[in-house]
Design brief:
The complex is a heterodimer of chains A (427) and B (161). With 427 residues, chain A is an alpha+beta fold. Chain A contains 17 helices and 13 strands. Chain B has one domain. Chain B is built from 1 helix and 10 strands. Classes of the chains: A alpha+beta (427), B mainly beta (161).
Chain lengths: 427, 161
């Protein structure tokens, strides 16, 4: 495999609805932004594209990625669609990486989008819940927030995680988004406000849960040769990993923890794993990505993280899967302040504030979650962080992580059925 | 009833109401005995014929070793492994809110079963709560033909050791 670089990225503002633009124009907007950012790049250098969108139900158009391909003027170059639930964007990013790493392409465009506003929120929830077993899970009351609520209920039982710790994630991500003009739901919240917002599925409130959105994102990945020719500050993709788990949460077996290099079996002597409280696929993805990137102590060797916080609870669960703390310590990890941005005032006591910022962009909770675009959005924010161009692209550099060397992006599907982890590094 | 003509919801941009409906011939295929079992008051899981791994939600081949499984009758009582009460839901279930979802654990089974819990007092919901299966008198041949209720109608105030 040969080295792969990200040379440009672009996103649309994620919004509740973009009724004035269909998915083709949303992608085109992000694509044009992407091309403008690398003036020496030309369309003739593109060898092919990978498109991602989650749901044919939402889009109401099968083969929609083909329509984007022609709209961008990329026909007759190779193209395909990637679909993998919530991890669709992350899988798309890795598919473009594979095309370049294998030598099949010198330059591959990854584009993603979702149009979720064409149905009401509750019909949308029903569509999403169709990504659970339609014989055994969906008819019981198919609702993803309910599934995640059950998972965190068990996490609280096993480890003593509290709803206040979950609320701190919400406070953090919504406040970070105040400085991200692309975000959909920027606001200053208190723990009390998060807890007092309407209860959706105990213990998750409205402010614990991301919103459906319309939006698009585009990444351009290239070989070293192309990157060197057209990009002043390319970012190297040094690790990719992915994992999976059983579709039905009820089927998650109990076995041994998949260990990361800095962990030992005795750390988890009594932990039944993964059960429904942890994401085995996320741990597998992290292990593989760290292996490829040569990371041994993730908590110390990363500058920032953009992870899939569809729920405040899943951000806490994911700290553990990614090995920033041990299983069971995710709640205390957020309480310590480590995943907050340094120097921002959150109205909270944060003794270790800012050692490893998680979701500086505001994450899914505040940016929104237009499924097929989400994983690529994370890549674009990570790319700008590592280029040091957050100020240029967001109009202010409050969220720029100083001396960002290495970032992690994490995309997550279902109740943990597909998960991707990719590592990006400044060069 | 689908209205005659086109309902225009907006003009700039032009937004119209567009109805979509579909009927499936849905086969439960190899899982059919489970759904027929519900109509007879039985809860059927699967036990691997090779490694004896026991699935509380059926599957005809073992996820651990790949061997065929045999039908295995589960006890009609279990415990709450985890729970949530949904105050919102997908459109199909909105009118049923609030409802309580649980994952049930059974003695002798290695995996869990997703179901609804009914008839629980507010505040009476907890992990470990003993629950008993109840079956619909008139089957609809859906997984909702079974649900659970607290096994003891007068649960003690404090969890048993």
């Amino acid at each position: 495999m040969r080295p792969v670089y990200m040379i440009s990225g672009g996103i649309t503002k994620f919004a509740k609805a973009h009724p004035d633009k269909d998915f083709r124009v949303m992608v085109k907007d992000a694509y044009d932004y992407t091309l403008r950012d690398v003036p020496r790049f030309s369309k003739s250098m593109i060898d092919g594209a990978v498109g991602s969108y989650f749901s044919d139900h939402f889009t109401r158009q099968l083969k929609a990625a083909s329509m984007v391909q022609d709209y961008l003027g990329l026909c007759p170059k190779p193209s395909k669609r990637i679909e993998g639930g919530g991890a669709t964007g992350g899988l798309c990013f890795q598919s473009a990486w594979e095309a370049v790493a294998s030598g099949r392409m010198n330059c591959c465009v990854a584009f993603g989008f979702e149009t979720m506003s064409r149905v009401n929120t509750w019909k949308g929830n029903e569509f999403i819940a169709l990504a659970s077993d339609t014989n055994f899970d969906f008819p019981v009351g198919g609702f993803y927030s309910g599934y995640y609520a059950m998972m965190v209920q068990r996490h609280m039982h096993e480890f003593g995680t509290t709803v206040e710790q979950m609320a701190m994630v919400s406070v953090k991500n919504h406040a970070n988004a105040l400085y991200n003009p692309y975000a959909q739901k920027a606001k200053r919240l208190t723990i009390k406000q998060v807890r007092e917002s309407p209860m959706v599925a105990t213990p998750l409130t409205m402010e614990d849960i991301c919103t459906m959105s319309d939006g698009a994102a585009v990444c351009v990945l290239a070989s070293e040769e192309v990157a060197g020719k057209v990009c002043d500050r390319p970012v190297k993709i040094t690790g990719v990993g992915s994992g999976s788990d059983a579709m039905r949460m009820a089927d998650r077996p109990h076995g041994r923890v998949i260990l990361l290099p800095h962990e030992q079996e005795r750390d988890y002597a009594h932990l039944k794993y993964p059960g429904v409280h942890s994401f085995r696929g996320g741990r597998m993805a992290a292990k593989l990505a760290y292996q490829m990137a040569g990371i041994r102590k993730p908590g110390e060797e990363l500058s920032f993280v953009e992870l899939h916080d569809a729920y405040t609870s899943s951000e806490i669960q994911t700290y553990e899967d990614l090995g920033f703390c041990r299983y069971g310590e995710g709640g205390r990890f957020v309480e310590s302040g480590i995943p907050f941005m340094p120097g921002l005032d959150y109205g909270l006591e944060l003794p270790k504030q800012g050692r490893l910022p998680v979701n500086p962009s505001g994450g899914l909770l505040a940016c929104g979650h237009p499924v097929g675009a989400t994983g690529l959005m994370q890549a674009v924010f990570a790319f700008w962080q590592l280029q040091g161009t957050i100020g240029k692209h967001l109009g202010n550099d409050t969220l720029q992580v100083k001396h960002a060397k290495r970032g992690l992006i994490h995309s997550h599907a279902g109740t943990g059925t597909y998960i991707t982890v990719s590592i990006l590094e400044a060069v | 009833m689908e209205p005659k003509g086109t309902v225009v919801l907006g003009v700039d941009p032009l937004i119209i109401h567009d109805h979509y409906e579909i009927d499936y011939r849905h086969s439960y295929a190899e899982d059919s005995p489970f759904f027929i079992g519900l109509s007879k008051g039985k809860l059927l899981g699967s036990r691997c014929t090779a490694c004896r791994y026991t699935f509380a939600t059926p599957r005809s081949h073992c996820m651990e070793c790949g061997a065929p499984t045999a039908w295995h009758e589960l006890p009609l009582t279990g415990r709450v492994h985890t729970f949530t009460t949904c105050h919102y839901g997908g459109e199909a279930f909105l009118k049923e809110t609030p409802f309580t979802l649980i994952l049930v654990e059974f003695d002798g089974a290695d995996t869990l079963f997703l179901s609804r819990l009914k008839g629980v007092e507010p505040g009476g919901l907890r992990i470990g709560l003993p629950v008993a299966a109840r079956f619909a008198k008139t089957p609809s041949f859906k997984v909702t033909d079974v649900w659970f209720e607290p096994a003891d109608p007068h649960p003690p105030l404090h969890p048993r050791p």
